[in-house]
């Protein structure tokens, strides 16, 4: 039934807004039909700061996508990020009533509700409750407990929450365009759908999506999400640093970063001088390459250091310091900043793990699109969409993907 | 609580306005006009003229006032004629009665003149000798973070407010009847050392999100923020935290406040907590922080009598221009104006730590007290070769 289903992923990024239209295949893969893209305005650090302008940009991107794919877009899946998003792990417990010892489907719902019995700060709402594992009577890591005999059902969840109004802003923006929001999905969760394989998730992997305004990360181990977070730092900060340090206009700093910049340790820099030509309104100058690399290196290193510290401080035991030793598949870097030269060497140095630059995999269609790490999140959205909407029974990923705010938003938008 | 001189009166007036129920306030001054305009009824007028004679004249009356008090909190500004002499003298007098004596004093701004700062330094030394604990608010450090356009009146207002907050904190800590107490020895342990820089924070909030709001306000108090460097708490060995709140002040709130401060101050920091829950349920949640850092930052007692800046010093200053930025060393800001004053201000008035570039108007990304929108190389003080013109 899912063979001809069309899914639309919308990412409102700090640098660009992109719309990916994908087709779900019956074998569980997706094929990209086309991409709509516009440079983003009115978005800072992953969040909308100018609603009207951002809405206009989204409209452009959607029109672009409709034109290229010949699909009329009605329902979209939206990625969300922002420094207000927080996460933690929690366990829910449910004791079966005395007269029954078989676990039913509705018990799984109860146990999830129990896990959510935590006091969030008042302005916050739950964004995701991602299942990690079930335990039945002390038998750990059960994938599907329905039908099993047991007295005590427990479940571990990774819970993501954020400030309600800030989540709704994204939603309002799209509502203004008369579109139905199927669900809002944490950016890193979306990216992880396509940049890492199930095998890597089992081995343990850290996915870092370093975009323009934010750096989102997510740690998988034993096939489940252990830890996630958002830092409101990204490529924009690198550009801003260059602009301040080398006294260049922002646009100039951005091109310089893309064309010449390297995040690798400046001690190994080839050195020399980069000559910037005269432009109207800009007097040419000569820039020391070591200076440029130093500025970039320090910022990138700091961002990775913060990610590492965040993960180490996220809890004890399996989520704390020891977690890094268990990441058998190392670190995956995606997002626009993955294109920065030398970024992998910095990450290797900080995390002391093998680092790979990665992009969407196991997808078909327009090659140029999925080879670009900037599109990982939007492509991941469509994959997530398919995983959630599809009824394919045998893929564990579907159970692991959470029920989000979907119902809530759908009902509101009608 | 005794306010001495004009500054002391202003602060106690503020306090009485803020909390009309507060008791045990006294003001002492040699200026009948300022005493007359104060709203505090209990006052002693010192005869004008030689302060020594004046002190003898009020000695007996002062003795009566402090008789039987559990502790004496002296408060005032140093550097002027009244406070500089009277504060140490009163401290000696109170100590002679074997009463715990604390002082909470403000040091003058550098623009008030070298003479005043020297004067202040010598009386501060005396205070350290005689008091159990001395909290020092360096007005100069306070003004370090304010823009150059700040009105003079505004600067004094901020100084008075901060002095008030520190007074409230000390008063609260001394007067706790709560289950967890901060003892007097804790306070003198933190404030007893001459030459240390005291950091104060105060925040108050009501409502459902009161803890976060109060914490945020506390941590953003001017004396807890070093310009461009983030929180002053980073690396301090001991932090006194006093939490006062309504009847429903919860265990979790106190725990969270402590956790947050530990997170900022680092693992090695010892946070001492005092908790007091008031009977009323409408009382706001108040947080007070006192910490002092040794050595590294402004050495309040010795600073104003630093030897004049030598030429080689000046040269070094220039060389380390980049380094200076991130250290944001308060010592540099409180150096008294001297012959080479123009040169010095050049060195200290570096505005780089405030460069947030394109993120100027967006929500700041602050982690562990550091503004991460400020370029990393600036915060780490690494020098970048500027571009050359063709």
Largest sheet of chain B: 6 strands, parallel
Q: Summarize the amount of helix of chain B as a percent range.
A: 40-55%
Q: What is the SS-derived class of chain B?
A: alpha/beta
Q: Report the average pLDDT across residues of chain A.
A: 86
Shape of chain A: globular
If strands are numbered along the chain, what order do they take across the biggest sheet of chain A? 11-6-1-2-3-19
Uncertain spans of chain A, ≥5 residues at pLDDT below 50? Answer: 392-414
Task: Outline the secondary-structure elements.
The complex is a heterodimer of chains A (414) and B (390).
Chain A: E1 6-12, E2 16-24, E3 30-39, E4 43-44, E5 47-48, H1 51-69, E6 75-80, E7 86-95, H2 105-115, E8 124-136, E9 139-142, E10 152-163, H3 164-175, E11 180-186, H4 187-195, H5 198-203, E12 205-210, E13 215-221, E14 224-231, H6 235-245, H7 250-260, E15 273-276, E16 285-288, H8 289-312, E17 331-334, H9 343-351, E18 355-357, E19 363-365, H10 367-370, H11 376-389, H12 396-400, H13 406-413
Parallel strand pairs in A: 1-6, 3-19, 6-11, 12-17, 17-18
Antiparallel strand pairs in A: 1-2, 2-3, 4-5, 7-10, 8-9, 8-10, 12-13, 13-14, 15-16
Helix pairs in contact in A: 4-11, 6-7, 6-8, 8-9
Chain B: E1 2-4, H1 5-18, E2 26-29, H2 32-37, E3 43-45, H3 51-66, E4 71-77, H4 81-96, E5 100-107, H5 114-130, E6 133-138, H6 139-144, H7 152-174, H8 184-191, E7 197-205, H9 210-219, E8 225-226, E9 230-231, E10 238-245, H10 251-265, E11 270-277, E12 285-293, H11 311-319, H12 321-327, H13 330-334, H14 341-348, E13 366-367, E14 370-371, H15 376-379, E15 388-389
Parallel strand pairs in B: 1-2, 1-4, 2-3, 4-5, 5-6, 10-11
Antiparallel strand pairs in B: 7-12, 8-9, 10-12, 13-14
Helix pairs in contact in B: 1-4, 1-7, 3-4, 4-5
Sum this structure up briefly.
Helix content of chain A is 35%, strand content 29%.
How would you describe what is shown here?
The complex is a heterodimer of chains A (414) and B (390). Chain A has 414 residues and is an alpha/beta fold. Chain A has helices spanning 51-69, 105-115, 164-175, 187-195, 198-203, 235-245, 250-260, 289-312, 343-351, 367-370, 376-389, 396-400, 406-413; strands at residues 6-12, 16-24, 30-39, 43-44, 47-48, 75-80, 86-95, 124-136, 139-142, 152-163, 180-186, 205-210, 215-221, 224-231, 273-276, 285-288, 331-334, 355-357, 363-365. In chain A, the strands form five sheets. In chain A, strands 11-6-1-2-3-19 form a six-stranded mixed beta sheet, with helices on both faces. In chain A, strands 14-13-12-17-18 form a five-stranded mixed beta sheet, sandwiched between helices. Chain A is built from 13 helices and 19 strands. In chain A, helix 9 links the parallel strand 17 (331-334) and strand 18. The longest helix of chain A has 24 residues, at 289-312. Chain B is an alpha/beta fold. Chain B has 15 helices and 15 strands. In chain B, a hairpin with a 3-residue loop joins strand 8 (225-226) and strand 9. In chain B, helix 1 (5-18) crosses helix 4, helix 3 (51-66) packs across helix 4 and helix 4 runs parallel beside helix 5. Chain B is globular. Strand 16 (285-288) of chain A pairs antiparallel with strand 15 (388-389) of chain B.
């Amino acid at each position: 039934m899912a063979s001809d289903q069309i899914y639309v992923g919308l990412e409102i990024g700090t640098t660009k807004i992109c719309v990916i239209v994908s087709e779900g295949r019956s074998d569980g893969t997706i094929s990209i039909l086309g991409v709509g893209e516009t440079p983003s305005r009115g978005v800072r650090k992953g969040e909308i700061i100018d609603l009207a302008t951002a809405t206009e940009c989204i409209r452009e991107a959607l029109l672009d996508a409709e034109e290229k794919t010949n699909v009329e877009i009605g329902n979209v899946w939206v990625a969300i990020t922002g420094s207000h998003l927080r996460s933690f792990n929690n366990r829910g417990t449910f004791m079966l009533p005395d007269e029954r010892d078989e676990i039913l489907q509705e018990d799984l719902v109860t146990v999830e509700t129990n896990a959510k019995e935590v006091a969030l700060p008042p302005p916050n709402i739950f964004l995701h409750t991602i299942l990690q594992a079930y335990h039945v009577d002390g038998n750990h890591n059960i994938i599907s407990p329905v039908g099993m005999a047991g007295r005590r059902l427990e479940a571990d969840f990774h819970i993501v929450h954020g400030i309600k109004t800030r989540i709704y802003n994204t939603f309002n923006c799209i509502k203004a365009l008369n579109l139905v929001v199927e669900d809002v999905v944490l950016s890193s969760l979306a990216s992880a759908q396509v940049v890492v394989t199930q095998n890597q998730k089992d081995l343990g992997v850290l996915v870092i999506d370093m975009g323009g305004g934010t750096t989102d990360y997510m740690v998988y181990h034993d096939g489940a999400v252990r830890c996630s977070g958002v830092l409101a730092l990204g490529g924009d900060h690198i550009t801003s640093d260059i602009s301040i340090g080398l006294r260049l206009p922002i646009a100039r700093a951005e091109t310089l970063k893309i064309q010449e910049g390297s995040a690798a340790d400046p001690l190994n820099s080839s050195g020399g001088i980069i000559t910037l030509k005269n432009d109207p309104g800009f007097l040419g100058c000569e820039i020391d390459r070591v200076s440029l690399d130093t500025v970039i290196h320090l910022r990138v290193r700091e961002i990775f250091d913060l990610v590492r510290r965040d993960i180490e401080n996220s809890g004890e035991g399996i989520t704390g310091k020891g977690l890094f030793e268990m990441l058998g598949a190392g670190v995956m870097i995606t997002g626009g900043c993955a294109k920065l030269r030398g970024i992998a060497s910095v990450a290797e140095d900080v995390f002391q793990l093998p680092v790979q630059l990665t992009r969407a995999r196991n997808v078909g269609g327009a090659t140029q699109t999925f080879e670009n790490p900037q599109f990982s999140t939007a492509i991941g959205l469509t994959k997530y969409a398919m995983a959630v909407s599809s009824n394919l029974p045998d893929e564990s990923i579907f159970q692991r993907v959470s029920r989000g705010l979907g119902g809530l938003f759908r009902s509101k938008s009608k | 609580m005794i306010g001495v001189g004009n500054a002391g009166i202003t602060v106690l007036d503020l306090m009485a306005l803020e909390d009309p129920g507060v008791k045990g306030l006294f003001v002492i001054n040699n200026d009948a006009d300022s005493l007359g305009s104060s709203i505090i009824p209990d006052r002693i007028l010192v005869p004008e003229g030689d302060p020594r004679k004046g002190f003898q004249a009020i000695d007996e009356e002062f003795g009566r006032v402090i008789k039987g008090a559990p502790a004496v909190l002296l408060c005032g500004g140093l550097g002027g004629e009244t406070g500089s002499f009277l504060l140490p003298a009163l401290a000696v007098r109170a100590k002679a009665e074997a009463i715990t004596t604390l002082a909470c004093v403000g040091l003058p701004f550098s623009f008030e003149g070298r003479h005043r700062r020297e004067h202040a330094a010598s009386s501060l030394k005396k205070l350290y000798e005689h008091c159990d604990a001395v909290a020092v608010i360096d007005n100069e450090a306070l003004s370090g973070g304010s823009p150059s356009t700040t009105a003079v009146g505004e600067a004094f207002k901020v100084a008075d407010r901060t002095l008030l907050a520190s007074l409230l904190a000390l008063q609260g800590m001394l007067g706790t009847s709560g289950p967890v107490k901060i003892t007097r020895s804790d306070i003198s342990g933190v404030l007893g050392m001459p030459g240390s820089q005291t950091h104060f924070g105060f925040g108050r909030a009501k409502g459902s999100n009161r803890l976060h709001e109060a914490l945020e306000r506390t941590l953003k108090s001017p004396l807890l923020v070093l310009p461009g460097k983030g929180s002053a708490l980073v690396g301090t060995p001991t932090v006194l935290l006093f939490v006062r709140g309504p009847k429903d002040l919860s265990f979790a709130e106190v725990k969270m406040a402590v956790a947050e401060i530990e997170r900022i101050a680092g693992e090695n920091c010892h946070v001492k907590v005092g908790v007091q829950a008031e009977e009323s349920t409408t009382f706001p949640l108040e947080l007070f922080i006192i910490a002092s850092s040794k050595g590294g930052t402004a050495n309040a007692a010795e600073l104003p009598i630093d030897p004049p800046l030598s030429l080689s010093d000046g040269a070094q200053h220039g060389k380390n221009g980049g380094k200076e930025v991130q250290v944001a060393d308060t010592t540099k800001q409180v150096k008294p104006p001297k012959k080479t004053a123009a040169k010095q201000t050049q060195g200290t008035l570096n505005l780089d730590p405030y460069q947030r570039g394109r993120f100027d108007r967006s929500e700041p990304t602050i982690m562990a007290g550091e503004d991460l929108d400020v370029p990393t190389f600036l915060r780490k003080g690494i020098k970048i070769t500027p571009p050359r013109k063709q």
